[in-house]
C-alpha cells in the first residue's frame, strides 16, 4: 500500500511495505512545523497503522529539522482558546503514538524542538545522527507538553533543568541522558531503522503484548490534565513575548 496525503503546507507521505508503515514529514520550508493540518494527518496515519495491525511505524523528515514544533509565526492573530485547541490536538497525537500497539521509530537527522521533540520522544526508538539536537522551550512560556515523558526517559532532575533553561542538547548529550536510543552517522540512519523494523516484523512475540509489557504505565488523562493546568490565561501573549524576546520564529 502506498498513499500520499497533502496536508498543506506540509505533506505527510505514508508508504506501507510489508509489516511497517513509513511516515515522512516533508515541509523543510517551515522546518516541519506541526501545523493543525499536519497533526491531523499524522493522527490519521497512526490510526490507520493500528487498524491494519502493522508491526512497526517509522517516522522520518526532510530538510534540516526533524520537527520544529509549532510555527510561532502563526500566533500573531491567535487567541488563547485557538492555541489551547491546537495543543490539545498535539497532545492527542502524542498519546496516540505512545499507546499504539506497534514498535515506533523516530529517525532524526536535525533539530527536534518543542512539540517536535515531544513527537520524537513519543516513539519507542529514537535513532539520531550527529546533526541531531533537542530543545524544549515550552515551559519558557508556561506550557507543559510532553514533560512527563521527558522525565521518564531521562530523569526528574534532567527534565526539570531542560524545562527551566530551554537549553539545546547535542546528539551525544541526548544519547547520554536517554533522549536518543542510538546515535549513528547520517548515512547509517536508514539501515539502523531498518534493522529495528526487521526485528519487529520477524518477532515471534506478539508486538501488541510486548509494547504493553515494556512501556511505562502512563494514563493519557494525566498528561492531558497537566497540559490543561499549564494553559492559563495569557498563553498567546506569553508565546508572542517569548518569540519576540528570543527572535525565534519556530
What does this protein look like?
It is built from 10 helices and 10 strands. Helix 2 runs antiparallel to helix 9. By secondary structure, the chain is an alpha/beta fold. The strands form 2 sheets. A 7-stranded mixed sheet has the order 1-2-3-4-6-8-10, with helices on both faces. A 3-stranded parallel sheet has the order 5-7-9. Strand 3, helix 1 and strand 4 form a beta-alpha-beta unit. The N terminus is likely disordered.
The count of helical stretches stands at 10
* Backbone structural class: alpha/beta
The spatial strand order of the largest sheet comes to: 1-2-3-4-6-8-10
Beta-strand level of the residues, as a percent range? Answer: 15-25%
Query: Could you tell me how far the N terminus lies from the C terminus, measured between alpha carbons in angstroms?
Result: 34 Å
Number of strands: 10
- How confident overall, as mean pLDDT? 85
How would you sum up the major sheet? 7 strands, mixed
Radius of gyration: 17 Å
Q: Uncertain regions: pLDDT < 50 for 5+ in a row?
A: 1-10
- Give the topology string: H per helix, E per strand: EEEHEEHEEHEEHHHEHHHH
Overall form: globular
Helix content: 40-55%
Amino acid at each position: 500500500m502506498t498513499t500520499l496525503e497533502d496536508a498543506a503546507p506540509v505533506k505527510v507521505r505514508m508508504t506501507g511495505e510489508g509489516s511497517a508503515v513509513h511516515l515522512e514529514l516533508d515541509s523543510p520550508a517551515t522546518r516541519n512545523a506541526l501545523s493543525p493540518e499536519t497533526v491531523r494527518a499524522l493522527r490519521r496515519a497512526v490510526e490507520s497503522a493500528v487498524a491494519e495491525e502493522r508491526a512497526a511505524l517509522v517516522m522520518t523528515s526532510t530538510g534540516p529539522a526533524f520537527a520544529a514544533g509549532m510555527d510561532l509565526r502563526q500566533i500573531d492573530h491567535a487567541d488563547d482558546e485557538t492555541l489551547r485547541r491546537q495543543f490539545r490536538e498535539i497532545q492527542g497525537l502524542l498519546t496516540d503514538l505512545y499507546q499504539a500497539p506497534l514498535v515506533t521509530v523516530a529517525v532524526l537527522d536535525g533539530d527536534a524542538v518543542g512539540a517536535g521533540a515531544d513527537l520524537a520522544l513519543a516513539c519507542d526508538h529514537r535513532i539520531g545522527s550527529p546533526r541531531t539536537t533537542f530543545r524544549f522551550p515550552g515551559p519558557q512560556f508556561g506550557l507543559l507538553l510532553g514533560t512527563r515523558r521527558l522525565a521518564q526517559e531521562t530523569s526528574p532532575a534532567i527534565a526539570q533543568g531542560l524545562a527551566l533553561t530551554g537549553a539545546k542538547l547535542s546528539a551525544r548529550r541526548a544519547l547520554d541522558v536517554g533522549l536518543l536510543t542510538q546515535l549513528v552517522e547520517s548515512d547509517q540512519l536508514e539501515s539502523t531503522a531498518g534493522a529495528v523494523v526487521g526485528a519487529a516484523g520477524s518477532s515471534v512475540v506478539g508486538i501488541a503484548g510486548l509494547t504493553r509489557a515494556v512501556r511505562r504505565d502512563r494514563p493519557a488523562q494525566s498528561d492531558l490534565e497537566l497540559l490543561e493546568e499549564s494553559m492559563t490565561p495569557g498563553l498567546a501573549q506569553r508565546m508572542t513575548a517569548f518569540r519576540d524576546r528570543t527572535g525565534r520564529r519556530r
